[in-house]
Each structure stands twice: as C-alpha cells, then as structure tokens.
Amino acid sequence: MAATQSSSWSDLQPELLGLVLQRLPSLADRVRLHAVCRTWQYNARLQPLPPPLPWLSLLDGTFLSFPSGEIHRMPVPDEACCHGSIDNWLFLMNNDGWCSLMNPFSKAMLQLPKLPTIGHKMDNPCPLFYKLVVSSFLDLSPESLVAVLIMDDGFDSTLCICQPPISTDAISRLSGDKIYDVVFFSGKLYALTPVKLFLLEIADNHKCEPKISSIKCIIDSVDYPSMIDRLTPNSYLYARWNYLVESGGRLLLVARRVGVLLPLPEHNVLQHARTLYFEVFEADLTTDSCCRWRRVSSLAGQALFVGTCSKSLPAAECGLPQEDCIYFTCDYARARPAPDPLRDSGVFNMRNGTIAPLLPETRVVRRVGERCPTWFFPSEVM
Fold it and tell me: Where is each KIB1-4 beta-propeller domain found (predicted)?
C-alpha cells in the first residue's frame, strides 16, 4: 500500500528546511520563513546558517534590504536620534546627549556614556560622524569594550574608549594628526591618520577601567602609485577616503578615490562627486619584517561593505554573485547629505575595475533626516 503523503507544511523535514534556508541570504526572506508556523520557527533556529546580507539603514527607522531594495521600518524611540550603527545595533542619542545602543529586533538596550561634543560651527554644534568598533561580538555583558570615533565637518576628531556605561579615556590626535578611522584587529585597537597606522595598547586591567597605556606608530606611510596611474589627473579634482577593515584574519586598508569633474560647480561641490576607484592594501605586521602596507588584488573570498560601519562577509556563503567586490555608500558628504541617500553608492569589482549600481533596479528613496546612510548587519532573526 502506498504511503500517505502529508499535506501539512509543518511536517517538512528539518534537513529539507535547512536546505531552503541555505538559499535565503536575505534576512527578510528568513523572517518570512520563520512566520510560516511554529514548527518551522523552532526547526529554523537549529540550522547553522551563514550571516544574512546587510541592510542599509537610513537612520530614521527605515531600512533597505540588500540586494532587493525592499523597504522595512522599525522606528527608533521618539526621544532619540539615530547617528549610526555597529553590527546589529543602532547608535542612539537623546536631546540631553546621553547615548545608547538598541537592537531594533529585540529592543534590547545597552547604555553608553555621554560623549564629548567637538563640533565648532555655530549653526551645527553637534558632530556629524560617529564610528563605533568593538573588540568582540557586542552583547549586554559588563565586559563589552567599545571605541567611539567622533568627527565633525572640519574632520577634527576624538577617540573615546568606553566600558559601558562609563567612558574612561579619550584622545584627539596621534603625533599631531587627526584620526580618520579605527578598528579592532586580533583583540588590539588600531587607528589610522592620513598616512600612518597606530597601535593603541589598552591596559590589561581594562575590565575595571580601560585606559590607553601606550601608542605606537607601526606603519608610517601609504603609497598609491597604481591608483594614480589609472586615473586622468587633468579631468577631476580628487579626494581620498580610507577605511580600516578586518577581513578573514587580515587587516585591510581600503582606499577610495572620489572625484569631481572639472570645471568645479559653484555650489555644493561634493554633491557632484562620484567614486572612481578603490585600492586595497594589507597590513604586513609580521615581527621579522618592517611593517608596511602591501597592495592586494584579491579579497580571498570575502566581500567588503565600507562606509560609516564597515565589515567583511564571506561572499559565497552569503549568496553574493561575485567575489572580490566592495560595496559602498555615500558617506563623505556629511555636512550636506544629498536628497537621494543612494547617490554614489555601488559595487566595485576589483577584478575588472568596474562599478555597478548597489541595487539592481533604480529605487527612489526620500531622505528623512540629515545623516548619511550606514550598513546594518543583522546577525539573527529575532
């Protein structure tokens, strides 16, 4: 006698459900799968999954899923303003200057200290840029260590070391230079100035009161000869933005070249800028050689997402169509963000030097607020 075939979706075998989930890199699709029934929700949580693809946060509670561009909304509290993100946490600040991190899925909160204000312009007294980095996966434990880079529109900067909810140490310059980016790599904190890389040692007893115990310059120059050769210097006015990214056990410097076509427009020069090229360098930190930057042509199977929140993800595991690609947003026009938050965002292919649109179809998204969009990396379905 033939076996009776089940007609219930809840009877789908867990191993088959796992195969379906492996083909759903989008968090939105995973959320929908969880919502089918309680059995699927339970079995789905038992499956080992690659990280979902990031969302693009517009900092007003609106998120764009990647790469579909589907819109999701998870409003922030009324009394708070979102100034950025770190992993799957949003960085919030209230009117009194007190800061916190909020997971928009679980609504969990992590209190941060009141950070210094470094803006100098009378019509814009608040900093325009915050970047948060953590030494390990951020949770609600009292051992979480957070570094916060604060920068205003004049690129004056302050780096704060926090043991939430306490801020215990801060520096403004390194050897007289402004700090452009920071990252934790192999448990150590690194900071980048326009041309130098510094190692900031944190005292061993940081669990009680973290302090920067020493500062050492380990790489004192960066050379960009190949990037200059690829461009036509008489056609553009150039600027460069650098990002530090930990990627597959490597510390990378991602150099982004932005240009404005000459002759320059009379107003809002950066609104006419566009990204022309990227170069990637790996920090050679071996003890038996002179530390230096070494140019690389491959990301070793990783995809880089750079901006005010930068991260590396395994391209194939996440379902991305190509390796050796850099996904970027427009994070440099901080004082006057463009009406279109997707302006000058895209995908740079390191293999052929081409740039493709970030989303496959043109989507007009109205900007709400005055902050640049940031990458948001949901780690799990809540």
Answer: 63-349
